[in-house]
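Example (one chain per record):
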Amino acid sequence: MSEILTQMAASLASGETKVIDLTHTLDPDFPVIILPPEFGQCARFRMEEVSAYDHRGPAWKWHNLTLNEHTGTHFDAPIHWISGRDVPNGAVDEIDVKNFIGPVVVIDCSEGSAKDPDFVLTAEIILEWEKEHGPVPADSWVLMRTDWSKRKGIDYLNMAEDGPHSPGPMPDAIELLLERGIRGFGTETVGTDAGQGTHFSPPYPAHFLLHGAGKFGLQCLCNLDLLPPTGAILLATPLKIKGGTGSPLRVLALIPGEGA
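Predicted structure:
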């Protein structure tokens, strides 16, 4: 084992490096995105017991799972959106695995989101963030912290007669992040776009612009309030689904621990 990996293992064992779980528990009650009724709908997570140390299997317990690729904390591959359908290696099983581990920055939008459920991340906000923390590094994940993950049940989707109301990025924000050469963009909401993102130009700019550029998405994250603005490492490894457009996954972050 090389010296750098030995040091990492020791750092994890000692607590000098801390592991933060950014993943919601996947259960049948976790909300999924709701589309207009004329479209197909995302299936909720379902778990069916096959046996539990009983006549169906005396020495083992296991379950059958039913779920959509985009249920719970999940990964969006480029082919998820029409703009990325022709991106080379755009399915989850084709993406180079080195893309699943990398640096991450967090832009704190929690104050604005607490005041306005339709709060939007703009290019101006990102530029102000860069004045304090330096340029968004190329090939990094950018996560939009809103503390939306602390909401429960119907408050999480925040549906109204005109659709969902939740924070997300404006087109100019995504365009600026693409200029910075980011790897992907993540949110605490049910999608990477604002609930009213259909009214932006282009509609759903995070999906349209990111995936068209071959970039990735993460949504339904949590515990972003435990991450520093810079300096963390993100581990986000989707299931290797043949031709998959996305996948539920366990998202972890490595941050400096106490005494680091």
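Caption: The mean pLDDT is 96.
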